[in-house]
Give the backbone structure.
Amino acid sequence: MRYFMNALMYCDLIASQLIGTAEVRCLRSFRIVPTDYDSEYLFTNVYYVPLEKKAFQNISIEILNPSWEPIPFSDS
């Protein structure tokens, strides 16, 4: 039986947007299907969102579940 997990990708560069009842910096939501091998996820539709930071040296990306907990990834 294959199951999936909802994931949310947050990025500190973008402006906050309303999702549900919260204002968050969510770049994208997607589903993860756990596998026993390396896999990748290709986003076919491009989303344009407003930036909050115009100048930056670092980009912070977090992938969390809907309960705001980090999604575990293997070391590989």
Residues 5-64 form one domain. The first strand starts at residue 5 and ends at 11. The mean pLDDT is 85. DSSP finds no helices and five strands in the chain.
